[in-house]
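Morning - phosphoenolpyruvate inputs below, output right after.
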Amino acid sequence: MSRKVIIAGNWKMNKTAAEGRELVEALKAELTCSCYDQLDIVVCPPFTTIGAVVEAARGSRIKVGAQNIHWAANGAFTGEISADMLKTAGVEYVIIGHSERRQYFGETDATVNSRLKAAIAAGLKPIVCIGELLEEREGGLTEKVLTTQIRGGFDGISGEKMAEVVVAYEPVWAIGTGKTATPDIAQETHAHIRKELAAMFGEEVAAKVRIQYGGSMKADNARELVAQPDIDGGLIGGAALKADSFVALINEAMGK
Ligand code: PEP
């Protein structure tokens, strides 16, 4: 089963509109070869930078994602952004349940599930993050934690819709720390995730779901990670903030 590799940059709380536009212009200048069409390249700026980035990316091979979405269509939810707001702003992808949202903003598997349903209903392409803490890995709880996140986060989603969801496996201990899961450890964990997806949605759907790795992925390790049979790309933090490091990583992921 061949799955299209997806490399997504999560800019987190970085880049003003002008800085975001500048980064996209620099990426466009580098990503001219039609060979880049063999993968999906996504950038996920903060909300206030989305408009400028959508405009700069228009007509290019760079797709735009958001970093969060609220489950309600509208209403008294100060500080939140709806699916319709993202859609009409030109957003195609949305990150849901990033570990920083789980850690600092009370995100749970139940809220991930609600956000996922809103994204799917609006026709957005969700990137749902799951991953274990260091103490959970050290305590031998990785598979149990991931299974719980998968069962809770994907509850009530049809197989047809699930096939289009991107799952980002991000071991929390590897995010922004410079520590990366070895390709073997990452592969073993991705295989577990796919097995759990198969138990929930069937083998055919599980074989279609793209599972990204995230956690200190950079040009140095991208090739070996993406070469693993169950690793279908990466969700990138730090290395996505500069055109040269993001393009170098993309090239390595493509085996270029
Ligand atoms: C992330 O935040 O999704 C991430 C993977 O960050 P970094 O690449 O900086 O570890």
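Note: The first strand starts at residue 5 and ends at 10.

O.
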